[in-house]
Amino acid sequence: MDTNTTFISDISKKEFPVADKVSGKTIRNPILALIQKDYPDFSSDEFLSIGELNLYREKYISNYLLVEIGELSNLEAKVIGSLEEDRSLVSTVEEEIGVRTFGQVIADKVAAFGGSWKFIILFGVFIVLWILANIYILMNKGFDPYPFILLNLILSCLAALQAPVIMMSQNRQEEKDRERAKKDYMINLKSELEIRMLHEKLDHLIMHQQEELIEIQKVQIEMMNDILTRISK
């Protein structure tokens, strides 16, 4: 073969040595599609130089890396967006539960005070002082002598009023707990669905990467074989 013989590339219309001649039939389909994107008239029956082919091989690898970086960035943005949506949902739940009427506020305060050690101690001191005042100070002849009928009446009235108020607060607390449980279920379900979607995206990304990496390895092997062939000549 005469090494001085040249040929004309069908894409650049430039003259190259015949030793650099490459047929379109030997080019891998992804790279051929990339060439045809720039040169629509180029077909598999035409020829180009090995240098031009290597440029498109490098372009193909570069495009793949850029696409992968973009997919990873989009995936990260979706995950962050999902987390932000979850956080806003939780804050909405707390705001909805936190809305109380005036009567509910009073019931909560009465229930909180009536179920505290402060109330028990103060009321215990009040009863002891009442009994001592009527027995020792007023010599059991005061306004409420033994068996302290007025004190029993006060205690009965207090219990009769306090019990419904505490029940109102408990009912409201149960309603809050049911609402929280429902919202927690919604949040957990949303998180589960997002985790499933994330797994599917990762599986798709991994499979896509494996296919593309195999394709890139084939292209690199072709480039290495071309280099070895040129060195041997």
What does this structure look like?
With 233 residues, the protein is mainly α. The protein starts with 5 loop residues before the first strand and ends with a helix. Helix 1 crosses helix 2, helix 2 packs antiparallel against helix 5 and helix 3 crosses helix 5. It contains five helices and four strands, in the order E-E-E-H-E-H-H-H-H. 76% of the residues lie in helices and 5% in strands. The radius of gyration is 43 Å and the shape is rod-shaped. The protein has a two-stranded antiparallel ribbon. A two-stranded antiparallel sheet has the order 3-4. This is DUF1003 domain-containing protein.
How many β-strand stretches?
A: 4
Could you give the distance between the termini?
Answer: 11 Å
Specify the biggest β-sheet. Answer: 2 strands, antiparallel
Mean pLDDT: 76
Rg (CA only): 43 Å
Give, in order, the helices and strands. EEEHEHHHH
Q: What share of the residues does DSSP label as strand, in percent? A: 5-15%
Name the helicity range: over 70%
Low-confidence runs (pLDDT<50, min 5 residues)?
none
Number of helices: 5
Keywords: Membrane, Transmembrane, Transmembrane helix
InterPro entries: DUF1003
Organism: Flavobacterium zhoui
Pfam family, one: DUF1003
Question: Helix and strand layout, with pairings?
Answer:
Blueprint: E1 6-8, E2 15-17, E3 21-23, H1 29-38, E4 47-49, H2 50-98, H3 102-114, H4 117-137, H5 149-232
Antiparallel strand pairs: 1-2, 3-4
Helix pairs in contact: 1-2, 2-5, 3-5
